[in-house]
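Reopening this one. Same input as before:
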Amino acid sequence: MRVVFAGTPEVALPALDAVAASHHELVAVVTRPDAPAGRGRRLTPSPVAVRAQELGVPVLKPEHPRDPDFQQQLKDLAPDCCPVVAYGALIPSSALEIPPHGWVNLHFSVLPSWRGAAPVQHSIWAGDEVTGATTFRIVPQLDAGPAYGVMTERIRPDDTAGDLLARLAEGGAGLLVATLDGIEDGSLEAREQQAEGVSLAPKITVEDARVDWTEPAVAVDRRIRACTPGPGAWTTYGGERVKLGPVTVVDDAPVLVPGELQVGKLEVLVGTATVPVRLGQVKAFGKKQMAAADWARGLRPEAGVRFA
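Same output, byte for byte:
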């Protein structure tokens, strides 16, 4: 089939590479416009745009897929199908109707669970034991289109959102190509999603990532892992924001008041509503990321001091 791939961030690269290496004809790539990045805030092409240029594939960067000029370009390319991975913009019906086989999205959950922008983060935060990826045909309703295929992946106890997303991106790339193959030879038929079991996964904000030490240790651990690497879990110490990496639940430590720090030579424990957690990496405002014990050694906090 002739295909036009749509995607923007790094997580879409395994699927782009897989589609490019398949027998399908990749005639163009659609991605978001260049955006400011780095300290200089220079306009920088998306990871997908960079990879497409390396592959020698034409790149389209519409401000929005509803733009008439873009839709005419898409018609001229005459794709049979448009595979999508984390493109980052809603596709209007007028564009959805252009390819005969529609736009087929690779979504990182087992639908209808976790429809929305942050399925992996919400899956970890909720304590799910298994997640996966689903390919489905895009419709105007959010992540509600008929599904073609599913893969599953176990969530490991120490998985961050970044760890889990990387595995799903690799496994999902094969699922996406297999879906295109099945559409082409007629062996796959899209089936409507179940009406029951729908859950939503809206984007996680910086405020969502603030650690609540009055929660149980298990909930603190899940929140931090779900927000790693982005937007980054944080708390405050002395009125300044402190970013936190993944923690370890310590079942055999003395109980501490929620937010209370217990500093040892080699570790820093923090109290929660249940048992303490052991801090991992810490990044204070204006400082480099470092081990929690090194951070505390520089501050020398008094006994009983707490995170806010």
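So the earlier flakiness isn't reproducible anymore. For the record, The chain has eight helices and 17 strands.
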